[in-house]
């Protein structure tokens, strides 16, 4: 798992709509990466809607927000359109970025063990360094907490 103060691993991933997003191209803006398990599930939908609701506030402080999951760009497009989401959704279909950021983990549900994304948010400062990590995110109030952390940079 990454730690605060380390350089954020760079990446280039496809996003909803088909464009490519490269992390290093976002500098000098602070960047919020929120990793989530799956499009159009209750918790992931609630989290995406919460970040979408605060887009103007994040824009006002110059920060960029990206949701990242293993889902395909086509699934991201449907998810975005269905819930009128206003944040870019990046597809890490091969889980390479999730593995680099330490969020691809063994999980258990209903007695079964499987690999999946642990809901995690990473705040990257304007210099490309990891400023804060929220592991095992609980969705309620999380987007607001992240916004406060961005404002404190």
UniProtKB/TrEMBL annotation:
Swiss-Prot/TrEMBL keywords: Antioxidant, Disulfide bond, Oxidoreductase, Peroxidase, Redox-active center
Signal sequence bounds: none
Residue intervals of the Thioredoxin domain: 2-153
CDD domains the UniProt entry points to: PRX_BCP
Catalytic activity: a hydroperoxide + [thioredoxin]-dithiol = an alcohol + [thioredoxin]-disulfide + H2O
Pfam families: AhpC-TSA
Any one GO CC term of the record: cytoplasm
UniProt-listed Enzyme Commission number(s): 1.11.1.24
Gene Ontology molecular functions: thioredoxin peroxidase activity
Any single biological process term in GO: cell redox homeostasis
Oligomer status and interactors: Monomer.
Similarity comment: Belongs to the peroxiredoxin family. BCP/PrxQ subfamily.
Function: Thiol-specific peroxidase that catalyzes the reduction of hydrogen peroxide and organic hydroperoxides to water and alcohols, respectively. Plays a role in cell protection against oxidative stress by detoxifying peroxides and as sensor of hydrogen peroxide-mediated signaling events.
Name of the featured protein: thioredoxin-dependent peroxiredoxin
Originating species: Roseovarius atlanticus
